[in-house]
């Protein structure tokens, strides 16, 4: 989420770094907690690509690897047992 982009959020980035990719989902906290550099604007889902890039950077994994796994995680969560 946007908090992970804040300068003082080292603890959040540490958690992202150690969390297995198979346990990661993306969310916005909209309309609050807009990521840097968009602070001051209303948070919206349109910032999710920026969050994804940031998480990939923190985890040191290619975005092309991260995105399909996060999609699978979302489908598994929201359609479990369907």
TrEMBL record:
Q: What is the lineage of its organism?
A: Bacteria, Pseudomonadati, Pseudomonadota, Gammaproteobacteria, Thiotrichales
- UniProt KW Disulfide bond keyword: no
Coiled-coil annotated spans: none
**The organism sits in which domain of life?**
Bacteria
**Keyword field:** Hydrolase
Which source organism? Thiothrix lacustris
Q: Which GO terms describe its cellular component?
A: cytosol
Q: Which Pfam families match?
A: TatD_DNase
What would be an example GO MF term here?
hydrolase activity, acting on ester bonds
The name under which this protein is listed is Hydrolase TatD
């Amino acid at each position: 989420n946007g908090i992970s982009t804040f300068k003082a959020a080292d603890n959040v980035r540490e958690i992202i770094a150690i969390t297995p990719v198979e346990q990661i989902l993306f969310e916005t906290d909209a309309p609050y907690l807009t990521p840097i550099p968009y602070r001051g604007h209303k948070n919206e889902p349109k910032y999710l690509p920026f969050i994804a890039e940031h998480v990939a950077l923190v985890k040191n994994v290619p975005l092309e690897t991260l995105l399909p796994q996060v999609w699978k995680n979302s489908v598994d969560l929201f359609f479990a047992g369907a």
